[in-house]
């Protein structure tokens, strides 16, 4: 009995030593890692995510709402076209909400002290393009 108890205590002591050394090793690893990557924010965040065991979640889009009909599309080709038409129209929608300026580009340039040999002049009527 005494021998079994001694073996159990020896085993517990070995496990505690291994755990302590593992924790110390991990602490030194991350300390060195962050010191080496102190100026690299991307690698720093990779180290933080690794340290807290963060896994990126990947989301798969299976359906997209049609803007005209309002129902859902399950077809990947149609979904591609829906996204394409949406993002192709964003610029026009935003531009229509911006008031046109009353000043020309040349109004913001100084009127005296031109050292170059050119002057900005309006050549095109952009509204006709």
Short summary of the structure?
This protein is mostly helical and 129 residues long.
Tell me about this structure:
Strands 1-2 form a two-stranded antiparallel sheet. Among the domains are: 2-51; 59-90, no CATH class. β1 (64-65) and β2 (72-73) form a beta hairpin. With 129 residues, the chain is mainly α. It has three helices and two strands, in the order ααββα.
Q: What distance separates the N and C termini?
A: 97 Å
User: Strand tally, please?
Assistant: 2
Mean pLDDT: 84
Biggest sheet, strands in spatial order?
A: 1-2
Helix content bin: 40-55%
User: Radius of gyration in whole Å, from Cα?
Assistant: 33 Å
Quick one: overall form?
elongated
Measured by DSSP, the beta-strand proportion falls in under 5%
Total helical elements: 3
What is the H/E order? HHEEH
List descriptors:
mainly alpha, two-stranded antiparallel ribbon, 129 residues, elongated
Topology:
Elements lengths: L1 H35 L4 H11 L12 E2 L6 E2 L2 H21 L33
Antiparallel strand pairs: 1-2
